[in-house]
Design goal:
With 103 residues, the chain is α+β, with helices and mostly antiparallel strands. The chain has a single domain, classed as 2-Layer Sandwich (Alpha-Beta Plaits), CATH 3.30.70.120. Helices cover 33% and strands 40% of the residues. A 4-stranded antiparallel β-sheet has the order 2-3-1-4. The protein is elongated and about 45 Å long.
Length: 103
C-alpha cells in the first residue's frame, strides 16, 4: 500500500535536490525536509556525529523498489539511509492523492 521512507542527507542542498528529483520522477508524491538534525551513528567501527537533514518521502509499496534505486544513485553517501514503513491508516483523500501522484 502506502509507505513513508526515511533518509538523511549531509546538506540542505543535497536533501532538496534528492527530494525534487524523486517528485519529478513520480517516485514520491511529497518529500518533507527537516533539519538540521544531529545524528549519532556507528560507521567503520567508530561512533560519529553529524549534522544532517531528514527526508520524509511519501510513496507506495509498488514504487518503492524504483525509489530505493533512485535514492542510491542520487545520494552522495556510500550507504544512504533508506528505511520504509507502512502507513497503517490515513485520510482517504490524502492517500488517494498520494497513490495518484506516483502512478
Amino acid at each position: 500500500m502506502h509507505r513513508i521512507v526515511f533518509s538523511t542527507a549531509g546538506s540542505q542542498e543535497e536533501a532538496r535536490r534528492i527530494g525534487q528529483q524523486l517528485v519529478e520522477r513520480s517516485l514520491a508524491a511529497c518529500v518533507n525536509l527537516l533539519g538540521p538534525i544531529e545524528s549519532i551513528y556507528r560507521w567503520q567501527g567508530q561512533v560519529e556525529t553529524a549534522r544532517e537533514f531528514l527526508l520524509l518521502i511519501k510513496t507506495t509499496a509498488e514504487r518503492y523498489p524504483e525509489l530505493q534505486e533512485a535514492l542510491t544513485t542520487l545520494h552522495s553517501y556510500e550507504v544512504p539511509e533508506c528505511v520504509a514503513v507502512a502507513i497503517a491508516e490515513g485520510s482517504a483523500p490524502y492517500l488517494a492523492w498520494l497513490a495518484e501522484s506516483v502512478r
